[in-house]
Amino acid sequence: MRGTATSLAALATSLSFTPAHAQTAPAAPAVQEAEQAPPAAPAQEAEAQQGDIIITGTRIMSSGFTAPTPTTVIGEEEIARNAQPNLFNTVIQLPSLQGSTGAATGTFSTSSGQQGLSSFSLRGLGTIRTLTLLDGQRVVGANVTGVPDISMFPQLLVKRVDVVTGGASASYGSDAVGGVVNFITDTRFTGFKANAQAGITTYGDDKQALVQAAFGTALLDNRLHLIVSGEYDHEDGVGPGNFGIDLAGDRDWHRASTLLNTGITNNGLPQFNYRDYAQPYQYALYGLINNGPLQGIAFDANGAPFNFNYGSNGQPLGNGRVSNCFPGNSFCVGGDLSGAPGSGASLKSALERINGYGRIGFDFADNHEIYFTANVAQVKTSNQPSPGYNRPNLTVQCANPFLPQLIRDRCVTAGITSFNFGSSNGSFPDPKVHTDRRQYRFVGGLKGQFDFAAGDWSYDAYYAHGTTISDINVDTIVLQNRYVAATNAITLNGAIVCADAGARALGCQPINIFGGFAPSSAALAYVTPENGPFQHTRLTQDVASINISGDLINLWAGPLALAFGGEYRREFYRVNADPYGAGVSAISPNSPEYPADPLLNAAQGSNWAAGNYKNGGGKYDVYEGFAELNLPLFKSDGAGSANLNGAARVTHYSTSGTVWAWKIGGTWETPLDGIRLRAVTSRDVRAPNLSELFAAPTVTTLPNFNDPFRNVAVQAFQNTIGNPDLKPEIARNTEVGVVLSRPSWAPGLSLSFDYYSIKLRGVVSTLTADQIVRFCFEGNQAFCGGFVLDSPTQGGNFINVQPFNLASWKTSGFDIEASYQWRRPLGLPGDFTIRALGTHVREFLVSAGIAGVDTVDQAGANTGNTPDWKWLAVQTYSNDSFSLTLQQRWFSDGVFGNQYVVCTASCPTSTANHPTIDYNRMKGAFYFDVGGSVNVTKAIGAYFKVDNLFDHDPTPSPQTNTGLDVNPALYDTLGRTYRLGVRMRF
């Protein structure tokens, strides 16, 4: 492991900006609930001065209203103290955020298109069930799932983030099943502020540089407001490592941990066995004969044959299997691991983002503004999904002239003319995936206040147009049938050439796959042409919206408040892909980039080893209207005060018809000192997105898929397709809570406890390819028509997966929050604040809705997103000169999956619903962070941050294939990270 001093020196060298401004105002809690924030919090004070109220899961903005839905607020100071290169990284630390995606997730993927996409997931319900807003407005999606990329937001202008942890579809619309994350920008910012930051890990990688600046001014007697901001962020990313188990840098935690499949379900022993150092026995780094009488002969870098060192004291059996090893997914334990590709994937995507934002607002009358905003952003990422080219099922002719004479002689002795061969192709160039997302968003609107009926009313009307252009390009991916042709060599007129005359005519050059001989440039140009897989996507979103709220009439306990409005939205996308992947009849000799090739499937495509993108498109329109009422019930010294809040929204989708959402809830400010009760229940909806409805078919390569009918591993393609007949998902959310807020006997204390329950039916979901095949194997004929696993042609095997409204989910648990703030602790100047937030997931039941498929509880499965417990604790001391913050992030121990039956002997029959396993525990993690700042002048200050101070390694998340054994959605995969920065504000 590299030393701390080395990393800090490198970090200091990379800084090239003036010192930062440390916040000089009294510190607010690190994360604060909107209804419980101490009175000194600057963000809340600013709101009070402007006469606004913090959004708390409702459209009603009536003064003094307290909403029943819990809302957590991250203020400007908390954002600054966390010192992250992306605001997204600060928000996802909240325990209620589970399963969000970012630069460290999706890096093992070639075809997903979600690498580096920063999007939120509340309650573990997925990013598509969390509504993310910018100033209360929808944002065009960054890919066809419809989720926006937080990296494209104007982050330096964000003054707070409101996180509504509960169903809010009636107030905000579709997708708010898990809740709402609303970024609020400072629309009245004046002055100049800037931030520069550099970062590096303790392993010397993921070097990061961030520069942000914003300027605002007021003209024409404070009626014209101009704001501009810009930012640039570059993050090197982490990885890739090498073949075997060597990760990037000096990280030593990868152990190739795998669930080994015996393939036997009824012998009294567990079907799956948890083991470290799993060795794939179908291929080796430079080639391995994996079947027949010569099975077990491998080749070194010089092409010399040797006897492969199988793990588990295994011996080749000549039939493709190895004694003492695991035929279900073709693994041994230990032995020669040099060809295992898992550690060769990136741990974090490299990322570069540029953001420009501008806003002009003109007060054409008192309390009435017309405004226009423009946001232009670009985010580019790159990752390596795996090294080389893993090919476990190649047929090699014994007459191949590259084959050593010794092996040709062995073929003659054995009476064979060909053999099966597997290779990691360690001498091949490594594939790289590059994404480039560009977003153009423009908003024009009117907002203001006016007197009507019983008091002040407010309105906000806007039109927004957003466009996202997304390009994915993959470098050095193999065209599979061309690879096969290039490896099938013969001698012709004294020269080694490709055996297929047609392939030779189109440029085929032979490849020596027996050893570490790099292919010639001509051979690589034929097998991995420069015009590799690509996908070009254009998404557009048009939104016209109006919202009005105010007090209708003064009643016995306060005003009756009303909010109402309507919205029109149009979502559209079109995607185009390369013809070798998408398959089009236009491939012809007249196309120099994509010439006709009889070896390739021109009609269906899917010719690449990975990255077989498809063409497609779709659109839908949405019309909706809503109304929300807040009725005060009573208010007295003896009974306290209470209100009832209700809302309803009707939405018409052009694809699926009309659907209703509603909510009803209330709060009771009890006469007991500081105690408030709150409750809400709601019907929430999520309409299927463009991808689910009209997805261009995507093809994923499954190189080592287990065929249970023959008990062998095969290469197959997973075809994922859309379903235009999908209907909206319907959820029932219920929350009940109690709050102790600043009682007179402890004015710095805030406590809250909230129970939640979410029942979701008609969930748009699919079974995995393995489940589809397994259920057919176990006798469920409904699953038998959508796959082929015994195709005689290379790559002919496939499994079709498609979404349906069959599944149902149920999750419940509770949130706990506590904080205390001391002013002038022990007589010292400044404030000391402690705060803790925790979420406990009692259950997360997933039912496929299919006969014969049992419900699975995913709570506590640390291979997923919902650990039993997740906590965030923060302690901060600050004064006018400096601040110091300690932070702890923790989640509990768990299991690989609750569906497993643990046993070591006398095991029941193992099934797809309840497979048997010998070990089923997965440790949680504890991360300790420290940060601080110091004022250099009143306007300039410097800061530092160290994340994962003790460099805690992730717990293995065992795979059933050759992937990297880690779950980056939960665990820190980068290790200790240092950041230094400067801020200024004038």
From TrEMBL:
Keywords recorded for this protein, A-Z: Cell outer membrane, Membrane, Receptor, Signal, TonB box, Transmembrane, Transmembrane beta strand, Transport
GO (cellular component) term, any one: cell outer membrane
Signal peptide: 1-22
Motif window: TonB C-terminal box: 969-986
Residues in TonB-dependent receptor plug domain copies: 67-180
Compartment(s) where it occurs, according to its Swiss-Prot or TrEMBL record: Cell outer membrane
Transmembrane segments: none
Protein topology in the membrane: Multi-pass membrane protein
Segments for region (Disordered): 23-48
UniProt domain TonB-dependent receptor-like beta-barrel: residue ranges: 436-949
Family: Belongs to the TonB-dependent receptor family.
Stated name of the protein: TonB-dependent receptor
